[in-house]
Design a protein that fits this description.
Blueprint (H helix, E strand, L loop, with lengths): L4 H12 L3 H13 L13 H28 L4 H22 L2
Length: 101
C-alpha cells in the first residue's frame, strides 16, 4: 500500500493541515520585514524571528521525517514524488486562501 502515490498524497495532505501555521508565519515575516520602521516598535523583527525559526524548523523536521521513508517506498520517481509532496502539503493552505472572504 505504501508504494502507491495516493498514500504519499494522503500523508502530505494531513501534514498540510498543521503546515498552515508555519506558512502563515513565513508570509507574515515576508510581508513585514522590509517595511518602514515605526517609532513605537521597540522589539522590531527579532522577536518574530525567535518565534518563527523554531516553529518552521520543527515542522520541516516532522515533514522530512514523514516523507523520507515514503519516498523510498513509493513507485514514483524522485522528481514526481517531491512535487506531489510539496503540492499536497500546500493544498490545505491554498484551500483556506481560496475560501477566505
Amino acid at each position: 500500500m505504501a508504494g502507491r502515490w495516493y498514500t504519499a498524497l494522503g500523508v502530505n495532505l494531513l501534514l498540510g493541515v498543521p503546515a498552515v501555521v508555519p506558512i502563515w508565519l513565513l508570509w507574515f515575516l515576508a510581508a513585514n520585514w522590509a517595511g518602514p520602521r515605526e517609532p513605537t516598535e521597540n522589539d522590531g523583527m527579532a522577536l518574530w524571528l525567535v518565534i518563527i525559526v523554531p516553529v518552521v524548523a520543527l515542522y520541516l523536521l516532522l515533514w522530512s521525517a514523514a516523507n523520507r521513508p515514503l519516498a523510498r517506498r513509493t513507485s514514483l520517481d524522485a522528481r514526481g514524488y517531491w512535487a506531489l509532496s510539496i503540492l499536497g502539503t500546500l493544498l490545505p493552505t491554498a484551500a483556506l486562501i481560496f475560501i477566505s472572504p
